[in-house]
Hints:
Layout: H1 4-19, H2 21-30, E1 52-56, E2 59-62, E3 67-70, H3 73-76, H4 85-95, H5 106-118, E4 124-128, H6 131-146, E5 150-154, H7 192-196, E6 198-201, H8 206-215, E7 220-225, E8 228-229, E9 235-236, H9 239-252, E10 255-259, H10 270-275, E11 281-285, E12 295-299, H11 301-304, H12 326-338, H13 341-365, E13 369-374, E14 377-382, H14 390-393, H15 398-410, E15 413-414, E16 420-422, H16 429-449
Parallel strand pairs: 3-15, 5-6, 5-7, 7-10, 10-11
Antiparallel strand pairs: 1-2, 2-3, 4-12, 8-9, 11-12, 13-14, 14-16
Helix pairs in contact: 1-15, 4-12, 5-12, 8-9, 13-16, 15-16
The structure holds pyridoxal-5'-phosphate (PLP).
Amino acid sequence: xxxxxxxxxxxxxxxxxxxxxxxxxxxxxxxxxxxxxxxxxxxxxxxxxxxxxxxxxxxxxxxxxxxxxxxxxxxxxxxxxxxxxxxxxxxxxxxxxxxxxxxxxxxxxxxxxxxxxxxxxxxxxxxxxxxxxxxxxxxxxxxxxxxxxxxxxxxxxxxxxxxxxxxxxxxxxxxxxxxxxxxxxxxxxxxxxxxxxxxxxxxxxxxxxxxxxxxxxxxxxxxxxxxxxxxxxxxxxxxxxxxxxxxxxxxxxxxxxxxxxxxxxxxxxxxxxxxxxxxxxxxxxxxxxxxxxxxxxxxxxxxxxxxxxxxxxxxxxxxxxxxxxxxxxxxxxxxxxxxxxxxxxxxxxxxxxxxxxxxxxxxxxxxxxxxxxxxxxxxxxxxxxxxxxxxxxxxxxxxxxxxxxxxxxxxxxxxxxxxxxxxxxxxxxxxxxxxxxxxxxxxxxxxxxxxx
Length: 452
Ligand SMILES: Cc1ncc(COP(=O)(O)O)c(C=O)c1O
């Protein structure tokens, strides 16, 4: 029997090959120098990524002259769109004054002050160059503070690429046991010592989490969790579950770390303020650097004092040649200042409308699709089951997922490869309509070519 969905996917991929010939040539040339032709796994897309020529406002243009309405936004980073004039002029001003020095600048203090004032859990903050470094430093802080060594993370949770968070991030279905713990290594020969130190918990399952957390309570330094799970189309966790995690960590002296590297964009004070659940530490990244590389971690003063060389509690050296570099700090402060209450309300309102409209489109077509998301974040999931955790998320239909992504790309709309995305402050009902109408069009084709 012909797999009609596969024929549809092949025809979309064929169109892409025809439209992106210059990108293909570049990709082939790049493969001579970099494995896979680039240097970031999330830049990869099938059959090869398009190469960007420039970007401005709502759109990216590739080398072949194709224009994409960008909902990918460098993994949610570009909350003011591409090359916003206020950030460009801030950067020009700073670049003439020098790009980096081994001494602090006012930019650091400005951005630190804004974030400390906005984020309920952060009394003191430190900057890094990536979210990966931010989560890595926060685990060190939790260990030193609690004098315990194990960490707990969730199955399917992504917190960057360092060893201790690289456990059970994308486990294959065939590697899953009936329990989440022990975790599944992310690569062959990942040291057993790392796996032994990482306890893997299931999202949204209070009973199983309670059992594991009590079992390891004397060894657990921290639990790291995203309040809104980026990897599952921005699924917000059940509030009852998040409250339970807050209470049990408080009771057992375990540091609770909220990874808000993506979810910080849902309100001025992040998801923690929105849900009124306040962790002990928070990690940040993406939007706070104004489009330049950044990460940050912060929390209670008594924990952050571990990084203070003039404190008797000083325990952890936190160096980094480009930490707090003035270009990122100035751009970050500009972006944060541009994000007023009004802008958040406007983006979140639009996000709500988008999710509602997408849901009614797929309901009308009678396709089993779940629309996930929160605030300005959204995800389109071809899934018959309710998505609650990693095991239900991976039931998403892979073929339909690829078809929608590929169709959108051919029609000038850029999503994340798993069909999630984010809005920015430049968007209005027009961009929502474009996404919704294209979803209707490809939804009808998928329905026609499937047995559903
Ligand atoms: C939730 C979360 N944590 C951590 C990271 C790592 O951040 P970075 O890519 O800046 O190292 C990311 C990046 O996508 C993320 O989404």
